[in-house]
Structure formats: C-alpha cells, structure tokens
Design a protein that fits this description.
Elements: H1 5-9, H2 17-21, H3 28-40, H4 42-50, E1 64-67, E2 76-79, E3 84-85, H5 87-98, E4 105-110, E5 117-121, H6 122-138, E6 146-150, H7 155-166, E7 170-173, H8 180-190, E8 194-198, E9 201-203, E10 206-208, H9 210-223, E11 230-234, H10 261-268, E12 283-285, H11 286-291, E13 302-303, E14 307-312, E15 322-326, H12 327-341, E16 349-352, H13 359-371, E17 375-379, H14 390-398, E18 402-405, H15 407-415, H16 419-422, E19 431-434, H17 441-451, E20 458-460, E21 495-498, E22 504-505, E23 509-515, E24 525-526, H18 530-538, E25 545-553, E26 559-564, H19 574-577, H20 602-609, H21 625-632
The chain binds ligand 6R9.
Length: 639
C-alpha cells in the first residue's frame, strides 16, 4: 500500500539487507563504536587511516594541535605537522604501482552532447598529470605559488588541478559560469601568475566563449598591475581527435576516433565555432606545450600542513573568501568520508553531478574518489539537455551505482513527472546522495520512491566549503534515515547546538550549529587574511567553530538543518521582537534567486528590496526569471 507522503515523511527508512551485508559499517552499533573511538582517540583513529597512504617521512611533533578559542590566542589547526607527502602521488602513483589499478578507468567523460565521450585510466591520468606538471615547472611555477583554473568540466581540468598538487602549487579553481569581473577579483586575490582555461564550450544550447571572458578578466587585472603573465588554453570545442561513440561502438570503453567535433556539431545541431582571440606573447595552446613534455615527473614533497588549494566561497554577502585547505588532513578526510558515506566498493561506478568549480567537485569528484581508486563519471552537460531524461540515460549507459546530486536538480526533475524517469532502468543504482541545501521531505520521498525504487538509501550530506568534507550525514547501511534530516555526525565531528547567549543546549533543541573540535578536513585559514578566518568562524562563540547554519535536534538525536541563520525570519509578535523588526511589506514569490547549488543570493534580494537594478554579477543564478518576477511584483511604496 502506498501511503500519502505526509505519513511517510514521519517514517524511518533503512537500507535493504543485501546492501547491509556488504557494507563497511553495517549497523548503528558499529557506527557508534567507530564514532566514539574517532572522537575519544582521534590520534589512533586517524593515525590508522593515515597508514594506508604514502608518507615520505612521518610527523615530527604532536599528531594534532589546535586552538579553537579566540580569547586564548591565535586560532590554528595542525594535523600531522612535519610529515611529508604528496597528494597527487597518493591518488595516482600509489594506485597505479602499489594497488595495481593502472588499467582501471578513473573517469568516464560524458560531453554536453549525447554521444560525446572519452575514458581515461589511472595510468593514463598519471602520465598526463606528469606531463602537465612538467609544463607548469617550465613556466616557472614553484611550490607555494598559486595557479588560477577557469575551465569547463573536462578531463584536462582534473589533470591541471592534480599537476598543481604534484608540484606543490595551490590551485584556485573558478567556476566557468562566473563573469570576467569575478574571475579578475579571484585572480587578484590569489596573486597567481598563470591562468589555465579553454577555448569555449557549450552549456546545453548556449555557447560560452570562455577564452574571450578570460581575456576580459586578464585585461581588468592588467589595469590593476596583477602579476599574471601567461595563459594556457585547452582546445576543447575545436578538439580534433574527439572520441565519439557512434552506432557501431556499443560497448565501453567508448574509444573511437572520429572526424572533428566541428563537423559533427555543424552537421547535427548547427552549432558554431567562435573565433578564439589570441595573443602569442601570453597565450599557449595546451596541446602545444604538452607535445614534448616528459611523462615522468618527480612529485614535490610537501608538509602535511602545506596549502593544497584556495577555493572562493560563493560570497552571497561581501567579498568572496579564499578558503584554504591543507594537504594531509584534507586527503585523509575526503578519502574516508567518500569511502564510508557512499559505502564505496571497487566495482562501483560513481557519479557526482557537481561542477569541479565548487567544493563538492573538489572533494567528491576529484580527491575523495581518486584516493579510493574509484571509477567516476565526469559530466560536462546539463540535467535537462537535450531532454529531461538525460541523467537517467547516463545512469543506464555507465551502470552507475552511487549517484550524488543537489536538491535543486531533484526538484527540477521531479517537476517533469515520473514517466521520464521510469523510461530508464536505473537498476544499477544502490545509494543516492544529496548536498547543497536542506532537502524538503517531498523531494526526498520522490528521490527515494521514484528514482531509487525504494531500494536505495539516501545520504543527505551536510557540509560546507569550509569543512572540506561531510560533517553531518547518514552512513547508508548503518543509520536509519528520516526524510529531510542529515542525521548524525561523521567520524571525528562533535556538533553542539547553542542558544543566542552561547549556552550549549541538551537533548531536543533548536539553535546555532557549531562544532567543538577539529576534524582533519576543516579549513585552516582565509588566504592571506587570517583575521577574517578568526572573525568569521570563531568570534561569535569562543571555543567553537560556527557554521552559520541553524539546526534542530530531535528526541532521537537526529540533526535537521534549518538553513543559514541570516536567511531566517523571526516570526513573533511585534511587542516581543520590537517594532524595528516589523516587515514593511511581505511579498509572495514563486521562488528566490538561488545559485545552482541552492544558495539564496541575499545580495540580490537586498538590491530588489531597494529597487536597485545594478545587480553586479548574476552569472551563477539558476533561474534569472525569478529576479524579474520579484522586481515586477515589488511594492512601490516601500522605502
Ligand atoms: C557542500 C556545500 C554550504 C552551505 C551550508 C548549508 C548548505 C549544504 C546541506 C546544506 C542542509 C544539507 N548545505 N549541504 N543544508 N542540508 N545536506 O554545499 O558547500 O557551497 O560552501 O555551502 O550549504 O547552508 O552552510 P557550500
């Protein structure tokens, strides 16, 4: 009998027995046992995990040292300081040589157009990364330098980021949907001397002239005396040896040389090739610089606490922050969360739909999966292009077992109706995941019932750019799920709920979500702005890392994220919160301006309230029509 959703939302859901049987963590008791050890003996717990990785030399000082209390001095977090390693070596060389995974596929690349695909094995990826690492060194990139990357979802993006990691340089990846203005701002803040980009790409039907936008950004930077001098450009749209799978190549790996993508595109969909602006003093083609580069490159050995990358947060308020992660802690944390949260097994085909320009793409498309020797799908396109069945067709094509996406995508696909999903088999699916914003129980149940056909647990993973990896999340076979709840903390994570005065609340409660001690993947600083790191995350409640999210804890100890604290409206009577908090006008809205990962763009809302059409960069807004609707329906009498 199918119960109405309202009743089902109050149900508790469990993984099916065949999944539990082979799970890394098969019961709640096992989760509790591992969790207790992880918080009571972090050194032993993470120390054992670290042994699976290659360390050139062991740590010299304490395994973990930190200060979370601003009143006691500088905030700092150090895991395994003094140990030396290289994350790229651990992701590639270790998997190729020690784990003998050289011939295993690292990525199935699926292009914007159905039929465009490529595969790359671990050993092929290693060779390409070594070649590009040599190119970086030839260009003068050294340990500690930063490199900006502004690319579509192509394999060269992964190659570029891992090559940076191999030579000890920090990558700063800027989402390819951002404008020239935003790119310039990030280039300036990260002090980088090199930019890696691509000629152009299609997002659905829309041509994005990436190189042209990059040039505009470089021009703006030049006016501000930035040190950036070089630009390496992948010929993506104009690729000559594109691998297309045609009617004659049914079985993967889908390697078949075809005529150029240009011919294919102009024939089939009348897509055009833009002319690429070029300055031979500054610009180099990727394929030219790679041509003579050696396929071997000794990794640069780095301290566990050396910086790995900078990633700018969406910055819905003010100037974006350059979140910095370091090598050792981020490596073991993304590897461990990936293994347990997706219950990874060697035969899995994993697909995370996030863009690598966001943290989800860093942690769960690149670092976490590669650290586990996983096979992933890397998808360039959009969920509803060329039709609304695209996601499910990709799941069937590659027999995806673990699928990770955002609530916005789930709600979008839900709108088009079940028949587009049911047309496809999806029988390979085992675990489903969501990330980015709270998932409403209706969308959760649809995902569970229609997409996963009631046999796939859903991991609702709560985390942030700043946390590096999952911090509150179910483990699929261990933690019974409640629709809309991120359930319990991951290993090593100690949450608390505080009231406005900073008191810890016990039992059933609602308040500020904070964390009491560091886990290995927590950010270490804001790039070249440590005071901003301290003020943003540690000042409000000394002794705690403050997430900025609100949460509820229910009677069973489950955590429910209620959203960003500053997105919330206190509803009360005028006498209680004061006349100053009385709204001037309440406007009904079909939706709010949100990013593709579901973040409300408060900056844009403020402009709408003021009737100011100078919105700044709106290139990341998911549905621009919402902004017009809000402008057109605002009340003219408000001040
Ligand atoms: C990974 C990522 C972080 C903010 C975070 C919270 C929201 C993310 C969520 C979630 C409820 C989840 N968020 N996952 N809210 N349930 N499962 O999204 O990082 O872009 O830095 O955003 O996203 O508000 O504070 P980031």
């Amino acid at each position: 009998m199918v119960l109405p959703d309202e009743e089902r939302a109050a149900e508790v859901f469990r993984a099916p027995p065949d999944l539990v049987r082979e799970a890394h963590v098969p019961s709640l008791e096992k989760y509790r046992e591992l969790y207790s050890r992880s918080v009571e003996e972090p050194q032993e717990f993470w120390g054992d995990i670290a042994k699976e990785f290659y360390w050139r030399s062991q740590h010299t000082g304490p395994f973990l040292q930190y200060n979370f209390d601003v009143t006691k001095g500088k905030i700092f977090i150090e895991w395994m300081k003094g140990a030396t390693t290289n994350i790229c070596y651990n992701l590639l060389d270790r998997n190729v040589y020690e784990n003998k995974l050289g011939d295993k596929i690292a990525f199935y690349w699926e292009g914007n157009e159905p039929g465009e695909s490529m595969t790359i094995t671990y050993s092929e990826l290693l060779s390409k990364v070594c070649q590009f690492a040599n190119v970086l060194q030839e260009q003068g990139v050294k340990k500690g330098d930063s490199v900006s990357i502004y690319m579509p979802m192509i394999i060269e993006l992964v190659v570029a980021m891992l090559a940076c990691a191999r030579v000890g340089a920090l990558h700063s990846i800027v989402f390819a949907g951002f404008s020239a203005e935003s790119l310039c701002e990030r280039i300036l803040d990260s002090h980088c001397s090199l930019l890696i980009t691509a000629d152009a790409f299609y997002r659905g039907d829309k041509l994005i002239n990436l190189k042209q936008i990059a040039d505009e950004a470089l021009q703006k930077c030049k006016d501000k005396d930035a040190p950036l001098r070089r630009c390496i450009v992948v010929k993506h749209l104009g690729r000559e040896e594109l691998v297309l799978d045609g009617p004659s190549s049914k079985s993967p790996p889908l390697k078949r040389l075809c005529q150029s993508v240009q011919e294919k595109k102009t024939e089939s969909s009348k897509k055009v090739h833009p002319k690429i602006p070029w300055d031979s003093e500054v610009d180099f083609w990727w394929h030219d610089v790679m041509k003579n580069a050696s396929k071997e490159c000794e990794p640069v050995w780095c301290d566990a606490e050396d910086e790995l990358f900078i990633l700018y947060t969406s910055g819905s308020t003010g100037k974006p922050k350059g979140v910095v992660h370091t090598i050792g802690g981020y490596m073991i944390f993304t590897a461990t969360t990936f293994k347990y949260v997706f219950d990874h097994h060697p035969e899995d085909i994993y697909w995370c739909t996030a863009d690598i320009g966001w943290i989800t793409g860093h942690s769960y498309l690149t670092y976490g999966p590669l650290a586990n020797g996983a096979t992933s799908v890397l998808f360039e396109g959009l969920p509803i292009y060329p039709d609304v069945g695209r996601m499910w067709s990709i799941i069937d094509k590659y027999k995806v077992t673990k699928f990770y996406t955002a609530p916005t995508a789930i709600r979008l696909l839900m709108k088009y109706g079940d028949e587009h999903v049911r047309k496809y088999s999806r029988k390979s699916l085992k675990v489903l995941g969501t990330v980015g914003e709270p998932i409403n129980p209706e969308a959760w149940l649809w995902y569970y019932r229609v997409v996963g056909e009631e046999r796939c647990p859903i991991v609702d993973t709560f985390w942030q750019t700043e946390t590096g990896g999952h911090v509150l999340t179910p483990l699929p076979s261990a933690i019974p799920m409640k629709p809309g709840s991120a359930t319990f903390p991951f290993f090593g994570v100690v949450p608390a709920v505080l009231d406005e005065s900073g008191e810890e609340l016990e039992g059933e409660a609602e308040g500020y979500l904070v964390f009491k001690q560091p886990w290995p993947g927590i950010m270490r600083t804001v790039y070249k702005n440590h005071p901003r790191f301290e003020t943003t995350y540690f000042k409000k409640f000394p002794g705690y890392y403050v997430t900025g999210d609100g949460c509820k804890r229910d009677k069973d100890g489950y955590y429910w994220i209620t959203g960003r604290i500053d997105d919330m409206l206190n509803v009360s009577v005028r006498e209680k919160i004061g006349p100053i908090a009385t709204p001037d006008y309440i406007q009904n809205a079909p939706g709010l301006p949100k990013t593709r990962s579901g973040k409300i763009m408060r900056r844009v809302l403020r402009k709408i309230a003021k009737n100011d059409r100078e919105l700044g960069d709106t290139s990341t807004v998911a549905d621009a029509a919402v902004i017009n609707h809000l402008f057109n329906n605002r009340c003219e009498t408000i001040l």
